[in-house]
Every structure is written in structure tokens, then in C-alpha cells.
Amino acid sequence: MLEIVRTVSTLLKMKAQVILVSSGAIAAGREFLNYPELPKDVRYKQMLASVGQVKLIEEWEKLFSIYDIRIGQILITRADLDNRERYLNARDTLFALLEMGVVPIINENDAVSVSEIKVGDNDNLAALSGVLIEADKVILLTDQKGLYTGDPRHDPDAKLIRTVEKIDEHIIEIAGGSGTSLGTGGMATKIKAAKVATEAGVELIIASGANPSTLVDVINKNGECTVFLPSKKPVLARKSWISTATLAVGSIYIDDGAAKALLTSGSSLLPKGITTIKGDFLRGATVEIRNSEDRLIARGLTRYSSDELNLIAKKRSSEIEKTLGFSHGDVAVHRDDLVLVNK
């Protein structure tokens, strides 16, 4: 931890603004309580996190005080990111801390999180935090120098990939894909985080955490690492929130004509193009939009609930009010509330 603090101090002297995404609250709580034997219930993990968050921030404060650096704590859950107002409030708080020269330390709020509202891992939490404040760079530290052409632990011919311009199926396969047992924090989760960041226009770097002092070289493009370049056509701030921060709670399946209109014409999604609705959701929810081959092509905020969409699917917009007795507009998902994926 001290090496990280020392490196942050160096970066601050270089006039950089730094946000630290930390973890370890549950482990810190377990250690402070002298490793008690506990049931495996979620509430006991939340209890450990509650105790550990205090000890963890105390340790960070003690170390940063050596360099006369002030810190502030931000605890985040997925619900904070899903809700637009809370998302903007978190953003404002981070900017205020940075403005005052305070280093924000972000952690997932494990004391109240359950699986439904967890971000899930610190790689994605770091990427989402970077998107939140429109960071120049997000750096993920791991036990490797970056992404390799193979597993360097078993393949002596594996070579470090220094630059990734686009995250395609080949890159995902190299990282182990979503079906491997790499687990939370593995390379596969880092590639997912890189996709989140780069699509929003934020550069992401994977580097070794063995010697945090080398981060200065990494930032200056002299160190060994993998740099994921930001998209040349990043989504706008609000669409970035829809694309990366919100959790999809249902799916809308559309016909080929509607898919073509979304992909080539930048159109809104009309009820007439909807074939099937999956999931139960309310108006304003984030949904996935899939084509007839079950391929995800977009995410968006729906203007109608799942029950309402089931009633107006395949119908012309002029029939909405007659069918429902009211109307929230002619479209199911407006183009301003829609983000194409896998372009």
C-alpha cells in the first residue's frame, strides 16, 4: 500500500489528478475481528465489510498523511450508477474532492450490497469510475505486465501485446473469454472493463502491480504494459451512462427491418418492429435490444413497461393510444435514449 501512496504522491507533484479504487474491506474486517468462524450468510460478509471499511480507510489515511495528502472516501453500489440523479451526485462529489486537492478513494459498498446491486469487481468499478468523471486514463494493476498472446505462466513464447486498438472476439478469446474459470479479477474481467472505458472515450492500461513506482513510466508511455486505445467515436455522456453504468433488466427482440433502421439510419425503435418482450420491467428501465438471431445490437431506456410493450408490439404508432388508453409518445425507445453496441 505504501508504494501505491508514494506513486500517487509523485503523480500529484506532476499535476495529475488521481482517484484510487481500492478493495479489501471484508479481509480487513476479518483480520480486525481476529478471523472469527462465521456462517456463510451474506449478512456476515456485510458485517465484515462494515468493520473493514473503517480499518481500510484508516490505513489509507495513515499512509497518505506521511506525504501530507488528504483523502476522501466514496462508497458506491450498482444502484448509485443505475439512477441518473445519484450518478450525477457521485460525479459532482468526485469533482469537488479533486478541486480541493483531495484524493478520492472509491470502494464498492459491500456493507449494503447484495448480488443484484453489486458492480461485481474492482476492474469494472475502476472503469465505471473513469467513465463517471471522463478520466484521461484508467490503470488496472495485476500480476502480469499486461495482455499477452498466450498465458505467460505456461507459454514461454507468449508475447506482450502493447497496444489494442479495438476489442474484438480475438482479444476476448486471448483473455480467456467469459466461459473460463479465471474468476473475479482475472484477465477476462479486465477486458470487459477495457471495453466499458474505451467505448466511452477513456484510455485503459493494464500493467503490473509488482512495482507501482513504474506507473510513472507507464503513463509516460515508456513502461511495459498493454494500452487499450479509446474509441475514435465515443458515445456522449448521457449515452455513456446508458451503455456502461445502468443494468439491463429485460430484452426487446426486433425484426430485421427495425434492426436495419437502428444500425444504418440512427432511427428510434418503433413498436411495429418489436416481435418479443422478455423480462418484467417498468417504464424508463434499461433494456437490451436484440435482433432475430438473438444478437445484442443496442441498449436503451424504454418509454413503455414490458406489459405495455406486449400490447403494442407489431402495431403502428398511431394505434398506441387506442390500445393502451394513453400514450408516452410514438416510439418504444427514442434514439436519444439508445446506444448501439458491437458496432
From TrEMBL:
Substrate binds at residues 23, 110, 122. It catalyses: L-glutamate + ATP = L-glutamyl 5-phosphate + ADP. Residues 250-333 form the PUA domain. It holds the Pfam family PUA. GO terms for cellular component: cytosol. The keyword Ribosomal protein does not apply. It is found in: Cytoplasm. Pathway: Amino-acid biosynthesis; L-proline biosynthesis; L-glutamate 5-semialdehyde from L-glutamate: step 1/2. Its EC number is 2.7.2.11. Keywords: Amino-acid biosynthesis, ATP-binding, Cytoplasm, Kinase, Nucleotide-binding, Proline biosynthesis, Transferase. The keyword Nucleotide-binding applies. ATP binds at residues 142-143, 184-190. It is an enzyme of class 2 (transferase). One of its GO terms (molecular function) is ATP binding. GO terms for biological process: L-proline biosynthetic process. PANTHER family: GLUTAMATE 5-KINASE, ISOPENTENYL PHOSPHATE KINASE. Catalyzes the transfer of a phosphate group to glutamate to form L-glutamate 5-phosphate. Belongs to the glutamate 5-kinase family. This is Glutamate 5-kinase. It comes from Succinivibrio dextrinosolvens. The gene is proB.
